Amino acid sequence: MADNEAVNQIQTRLAACEAEIAELAQKLESANGKRSQLISLLEMWRKVMDRSDLMETTHHNTKKVDTVVTSSSRKLARSKNPSRSAVEKAVSEILRIRNKPASRRDLFDALAEREIHIYGKQPETVLGTMMWRSREKIVFIQEHGYWLKDVDCPSIGYRAEIDEKYVEEQENITGGNNTNE
What we know:
Elements: H1 2-59, H2 63-77, H3 84-98, H4 104-113, H5 123-133, E1 138-141, E2 145-148, H6 160-174
Helix pairs in contact: 1-2, 1-4
């Protein structure tokens, strides 16, 4: 009998350890996403600064060169976002791996880890818009986050064939705006 108790205690401690590892893995995933964003931002600023240096040196030469350099530095500052289908595919993979819904922030960080960067004045809002436009495949579930529309998620009680109508009702109520992300 004492052997069973010892085994149960070890199994309990092992489960607690595994839960702690999972929590730390999520924190690491988030930190890596933030790190990737900062690296991208730093690289973008370095490119802009390199263009600014070029603009300053050519400013004294001719106005035409100054105009051309100014124009190209503005284009450089406006990076092009990946296609919605590419983001949709990556988000689907991320959700399948995580096996649970994710917030917009978590998805944004996970995409950055994969070197998929979203740009704009409010890049997370841009991502939210992409997700809303991908609502045929990805849904937003109140209080849980984004999930795959056609895949059950037992951990939150989401059943694709039943809850599809619920998600559509939520979209009608909110007008497609997910303010609780």
